[in-house]
Amino acid sequence: MQRRMTRVYVISSQHRRDELVRALQRLGVLHIDPVQLTDRPTSSQELSAERHDAEVLLLQVRGLRDLLAPPPDIPAPTYARLDLAQTREHLQRLEEQVRSAIVERRQLQERLEAATSLKYILDATQALLQEIATPPSHELIIGLGSSPLSPEEIAQFLEQTLPGRCVVRLHALPADRWELVVSVDALYAAAVREYLGAKGVRPLALPAHIPSNLSLAEAIAHLQRDLKEAPIRLREIDAKLHELGQAHGAELLALERALVNRIAQLDAMARFGYTAYALVISGWIPHEEFEPFARRLQEQFPEVIVREDPQPAPPHEIPVALHNNSWSRPYELFLSIMGMPKYGTIDPVPFISFFFPLFFGIIVGDIGYGAVIGLLGFWLRRRFAHSNIVRQASQIVIHCAFSTIVFGAIFAELFGFILPYPHLKRGEQTNALLLFTVALGATQILLGFLLGAINAFRERHNKHALAKLAAIGALLGLGLTIGALAGQLPDALKTPSFALLAAAMVLLVLSEGFLGVLELVSYVGNIISYARLMGFGLVGLKIAEVINELGHALHNIFLAVLIGIAAHAANLGLAIFEATVQSARLHYVEFFGKFLELGGRKYEPFREI
């Protein structure tokens, strides 16, 4: 249901503006509207500049939080008043400590990754260098290759071509790679490099951080030190960052909250109206909250004037606050993709909370499937307790699981097996189930028209209300007439039902013209559409029965159980999908169109996070 809303005006002197806006935020019930009244053209510029500074600081705080990763259970202090200049200086000092550690960690990680990628090559090169004596007149050349090249042929060719001037050593590497080290007279070094390049042998490329003035042996030793020392230093840096997170984590959490609240305060102050000495605040509050709101505000600010506006306002100006019980509240998610109903019209959420799990249970209708869905709902609520949306969705899942178990008991179905007690055999009594689902659809459609008539009367659209009531009469008259003619209802109802149908048709023509009569056909189609509840339910039942028959035909209990679990899991997933989509469709397409009027503004009170 919707809460009754009241427009409120708050008038105060400007010198206590910051205190007043903090008090309004702590009270957390006033939906603030902008006031087009200002004698201070610089006010918006000042607020915009401060807001920019606060946003920059908020980005810094969140960046530091991501880097330091403070524990989530640290109790955060509160800030009565936030000084942006002092906060900026403090964050700069903390950022300098963190930045130096982060830069060093990144450099170490790069060096460690480079050395790790060359580890096998470094070990092989170090071993080969110990085998080769390198005279002062010789140069060392290191090459890397892979199959299908033949390193033995290359080594044999070099040693035979340059006898006494060239020594070659080979070493196999993982993944069909190999390395060769050539100690060759400096006069022939260029020719050897050219030959190796022509053969597809790549020279060993050292990482960029290795100084160019180091010899090959010194460079390898440098990389070996990186492999040994970098992990130790990285652990030290991580420990330092962890200590900083422990020391400053609560403070950063508090600063983030304070900055978000301050930005909200600045946005609120930008909506205030200003005169030379006073400010005016306009907004909306639930009617029952007005008295305590005014009393608590004037206790803190005796000079503040708080007034309720007795003048009626157009519905499109009034924000909509929904107030539903704990069962219905999660179903407000269905409105999140559509928007809010217009102020003063009927809230559809209580009706969704009744019909949606009802439709879901009719489609799935299996005790075993319902139990699994219930376990899924409880797991979601426990696993994602921090997420309000998932918590609400999990509550809907639990409701649907309960409905599924109830209808599963009515149908006596347990994972596709029929339990041996008196029940409604939906696989055989299809006519009864069809009549039930169509009757259920007629009930919801007629309810939709009744709610639409109530909305129209509230908005003083009497002609529109008459059309809704005429549609109800026409559908009732048509249904009773068909039932009497088919022999399902007493013959005594023929004349009254036909009279009701005729009178309703006349009212439809008077209220909406002949188009209203033509639309009656679509209303009948809306009702018949509810037969999908039976159809999709029967499909799920037949699939479950086929799965069980397949398991029985295998004559292998372990294989039957394994295949049965997988197949029933797939069927359950399909059943959940179809039941959700079809139940939602019946609401969005068939039901809401009869009464739901969108276009309302959501009530968003100015409050602390």
* Overall radius of gyration: 39 Å
Strand content is 5-15%
Question: Could you give a short account of the major beta sheet?
Answer: 5 strands, antiparallel
Secondary structure: helix percent: 55-70%
Provide the domain count: 3
| Total E-strand runs | 14
Overall SS class: alpha+beta
The mean pLDDT is 86
Could you walk me through the main structural features you see in this protein, from its secondary elements to its overall organization?
It is a single chain. This protein is an alpha+beta fold. The chain has three domains: 36-118 and 217-271, Up-down Bundle (subunit c (vma5p) of the yeast v-atpase, domain 2), CATH 1.20.1460; 119-206, 2-Layer Sandwich (Alpha-Beta Plaits); 329-597, no CATH class. It is 62% helix and 11% strand. It has helices spanning 17-27, 43-68, 84-117, 119-131, 151-161, 189-198, 216-271, 290-300, 333-336, 349-364, 367-383, 388-411, 430-458, 462-485, 494-512, 514-528, 532-554, 557-591; strands at residues 5-13, 31-33, 138-146, 166-173, 177-185, 202-203, 273-274, 278-286, 305-308, 319-320, 340-341, 413-414, 417-418, 598-602. A hairpin with a 3-residue loop joins strand 4 (166-173) and strand 5. The two termini are 25 Å apart.
